[in-house]
Amino acid sequence: MTKFIIFTDLHMVPEGLTIIGLDPYRRLANGIAHVNRHHADAHRVIFAGDLTHGADRPSYERLKAILGELVPPAAMMIGNHDRREVFLQVFSGAATDENGFVQQAIDFADCRAVLLDTLFAPPYDYPVSHAGHLCQKRLAWLDRQLAEAGARPVLIFMHHPPHVTGFTSIDMIRLINGQEFYALVKRHGNVRHIFAGHVHRTISGSSRGIPFSIFKSPVHQQPMPFDTPDASLSVDEPAAYGIILVTDDGVLVHTEDYEIARRDAALA
Ligand SMILES: [Fe+2]
């Protein structure tokens, strides 16, 4: 039974800065301490993009320093708030494909995890680059990873959801070539679940017959009204990470609101 922990949308900032009054460094440090305490046996902790808020080198360095505290092994992805080049300067050992995209396939006893790079940049041409994209090179790489997996269950992790989420403003900046992505995935027939971030909200459902899960951020969350006009508006709700378990007959997905959890109190 493979166990994954997933943190998405960390939005790390340089020292002294906050986001709507929240401290991304403190929020993530608490989350990592919580994982070390309760899930030190996780096979991977996946950081699913928007690692930083402003893609500046000091923020990546702060993130790297906190990750030094993490007990289970980490796997890094990037999102629309990241810059591939700056990320790779600081995380020089991060896995990339043969074209330099920050994506990798990892095999476990009972599944293959495929981590995609959906950053639609360079050029970092905001707001266009806030949407996600898988170019032909990345789709060809994905095609190979799914073919190699054969009959083994595949879990796909990607920052941008390839399907609609119900949030009008977010749906305008989802993966722009979702049709192409799903056509490829459906052709192979071995993808059991798709995991994404980007929305800063807990969402589950299915698209084209494939289940998906999206997780909250450890920091700021998406306002709940579906028609909030500005995708950058945020609210202060409890920090969260996801727990994914691959079972003999499927996949289990949990979320942990780690800053309000009272597990210790229950045990006392
Ligand atoms: Fe984000």
Automatic annotation (TrEMBL):
Q: Which Pfam families match?
A: Metallophos
Please name the GO terms that the record assigns under molecular function. cyclic-nucleotide phosphodiesterase activity; metal ion binding
**Key words of the record:** Hydrolase, Iron, Metal-binding
Recorded coiled-coil stretches? none
Keyword Nucleus carried by entry: no
User: Cross-referenced InterPro entries, in alphabetical order?
Assistant: Calcineurin-like_PHP (IPR004843), CNP_phosphodiesterase-III (IPR050884), GpdQ/CpdA-like (IPR026575), Metallo-depent_PP-like (IPR029052)
Query: Has keyword Hydrolase?
Result: yes
Family, per entry:
Belongs to the cyclic nucleotide phosphodiesterase class-III family.
Q: What is this protein called?
A: Phosphodiesterase
